Amino acid sequence: MRTIEETRKRWDILFSDNDTPSDLRAALQSEQGGNLCNDGLRSVCWKAFLLFDGLDKNEWASKLEESRDAYRALRDHFLKYIEHPDDLESTVDPLADDEQSPWQTLRHDETLRTEILQDVDRCLQENYFFQEPDTKSKLTDILFVYSKLNPDVGYRQGMHELLAPILWAVDRDSVKPHPGGHEANKDKSEGLMLDLLDTQFVEHDSFTLFLSVMQTARIYYEHGETRSANGQMDVIPIVDRCHYLHKEALAVIDHELAEHLEAVDVLPQIFLTWARISI
């Protein structure tokens, strides 16, 4: 967590000459792009591209409020009896073997959270941030809410690896608001900055970013089968995608590497695992 003064400097660096999404994208893709992210605010870049339609900051506050309210409502709904099991009122016998019983639902939820926590406990163990109880709690709750919201996909091993850097960046960029609240700021720009990076909403914003990423990434976690391009066989979506990246996309980007991997018979899923770890 940074000071407000340091964050203000980073905010100014990020938006000093970038008034449109194309300006910001071009700046990030330039030779100095890495420095712009590191010296600026990485999570703000992600929010600008994934959550907002553009860099018109007049619309950011309302969209932030909507997304945070949405997560708050989802969290309250799905975690209600996890956090307050004594509030579960039911005439059904808690020990009855009834799949429709709210007690059975609670047990399924507890089992799901145990599964998620097993992965969370193994997440980036060399980084102290991910060993903190508060971090583990946020990761577990976000993944649990996502899996309940998307029962067709549920939770799959590896989702925590996508969420972890998002939570880390959002938390690292976060700031504590002034004691008097954002209204205490005479500078409208600084008020927006503090609202966007408010430490109270690290979990909310991380969930919304993760949800946006999963719109594209969920295919990697779907276990259903689809017909191959030639229609002759059923393939799992992730296997089909790995084959495309390995056999076609890589050949365009780095033909020499593609030929070498094929010569030594490295499977697509193995190569892509190496790439993910190195990133």
From TrEMBL:
InterPro entries: Rab-GAP-TBC_dom, Rab-GAP_TBC_sf. Keywords: GTPase activation. Residues 36-279 form the Rab-GAP TBC domain. The keyword Lipid biosynthesis does not apply. The keyword 4Fe-4S does not apply. Signal peptide: none annotated. It comes from the Eukaryota. One of its GO terms (molecular function) is GTPase activator activity. This is Rab-GAP TBC domain-containing protein. The lineage of its organism: Eukaryota, Fungi, Dikarya, Ascomycota, Pezizomycotina.
